Amino acid sequence: MHQSSDRWSRRRLLASTTAGALTLTYGRLAAGAARPAPRLIGGLVSSVSEPGSAVAQRACHLLTPQIDTDIDWMPWTRALVTAQEGNVLLFPLMRTPEREADWRWLAPLLVDRFVLVLAPGAQAHGPLRVGALRGSFIGERLAALGYLQVEFTSSEAVNARKLGLGRIDAWATMQRVALAPPHLASLPAGFTLHPLALRPLSMWLVASRDVAMAGLPHPGHPALAGRESPAELPYRQLVTPARS
What digits encode the pLDDT tens for the residues 56-104? Predict the structure, then answer.
């Protein structure tokens, strides 16, 4: 079957109003037609990804000047859902085998690890009431790690306060989040950190599969040249050390 040089790359709906009437025109998008610039979405993660954060600054540095770095900030869960619409750049997204084929992985933004923040006297391997962020990667894996009494909240700040007030025995989160100043102020004196038996996580800047790669970060990008792979990034440079 003969294929036209034009392609049905996407539907184009043009609306115009003439003398109060609404005229709708549906047509082909030529293969060479310019695509709209991708939308840049930032998922809000308390004390990690927010306006002015190091993660946001690095993402913008990697995209400037090729991409407009006007960030649409929204709660992380909504950011992930919105990104399914396509033609987007998104950060930060944790890289997992399940997500590997769904995105173009442009550049790592940070590496961290999962920890239990333990109240004074609590034992990591004992029966614990554990607080976790609803819908989080770690929250969904606590049962497999042997923690069956899990209390989910919509905010990491709430988890920190609950631990400080003795309403939970432990808080499962990223080390960087646990040690952020706003959360530290709520934690009980004498708390300890216990690393969980999970691989360090890497958070990435990604593009939806329909975004053209021209001008986007790649291994030869000046800001990435000579950098190690995410698995080899020096841990001491990317993770805030625990308090002594």
Answer: 999 998 888 777 779 999 988 899 899 999 999 999 998 888 889 999 9
Residue-level pLDDT at 201: 85
CA-CA-CA-CA dihedral for 138, 141, 145, 148, to nearest 10: 100
> Residue 194: exposed, middle, or buried by beta-carbon count in 10 A (0-12, 13-18, 19+)?
middle
| CB-CB contact of 174 with 132 (8 Å) | no
Structure tokens at 66: 């090729």
Q: What are the C-alpha distances in Å from 48 to residues 8, 15, 41, 129?
A: 40, 41, 15, 25
User: pLDDT band at residue 158, thresholds of 50, 70 and 90?
Assistant: very high
The domains located in the chain, with CATH, are 39-111+200-220 (3.40.190.10), 114-195 (3.40.190.10)
CB of 233 within 8 A of CB of 113? no
